[in-house]
Each structure stands twice: as C-alpha cells, then as structure tokens.
Amino acid sequence: MSRIGVGLMAAALLVYLAVAIWLAVMFIAVGSPVSIGMGITLIVLTPIGAWALLREMQFGFAADRLGRTLDAEGGMPPVETELTPSGRIARADADPLIARYTAEAEAPGADWRARYRLGVVQDAAGRRKDARASIREAIRLARAARSRE
Questions:
Q1: pLDDT: is 149 or 5 the higher one?
Q2: DSSP code, position 126
Q3: Taking the domains of the chain in order of start, what are their residue ranges?
Q4: Predicted TM-score (pTM) of this structure
C-alpha cells in the first residue's frame, strides 16, 4: 500500500514541476519586474523542492528495505511495555528502553541492526527527530557493510 502512495507522490511531483515551470514562463512573459522576479523564484525553488522530496523518498525506500530485512531475520524489537492508545510507548517506560537500545547501538562491533532497532524504539516513544537520525545512521552503516562485501 505504501508503494502506491509513493507512486502517487511521484506523479504529483511531476505535475507540480510541469505546472511550476509553466507558471514561471508565464510570469516572465508578462515582463513586469515583479512578475519576472516571481518567475525566477519559481524556477529556483521548484528544483529545490523536487530534490527535497526525492531525498525523502530515497530515505523511505532505504528505511523500508532495512526494516523488511530486519523483520525477516526476526530482529525487530519486541513490544516490551504497555502502549498508549495511539501506539506509543508510555513516557515512564520510554527512557529505560531508549537507554538500553542506545547502549546496544553504541557497543563496539554493533552493526546497522542495533542502530535501526534504536530508531524503531525512539519512534515508538515519540522522538521522531532522534529516530530519523538513528535510522539514517543505520542506512549509512548498512551501505558501508555492503561495500565491504
């Protein structure tokens, strides 16, 4: 199902690019200083937005691939505590769990799997920024491990 969403996002991106470039050309064609400025701004900002979306899609695909691999190996972290109705780890239980998974991820010889598990636990605790950083590191470690093979 998420692949359908990604496909729709990619299609929307292409439509957005086409419309933004068309609008930029129309603004420039008007010829007033303000419209020319708006057209140039669209020409500059459109590729930046597309780049950002493509980076997020790359992150999502890489994270999904690692998650499926870890799940197939039976290495996803088990649910050890009661979850809130929203599916998050209760605040009282989050800190000890995160501390334990952080220690595992930072242990000598730890691989991408430990870092990915830390990211999953951080995400379940509602610490999305930390979770994204941990999963980005897991992706980097997995790529480094593949290049050594």
A1: 5
A2: T
A3: 2-72, 91-148
A4: 0.78
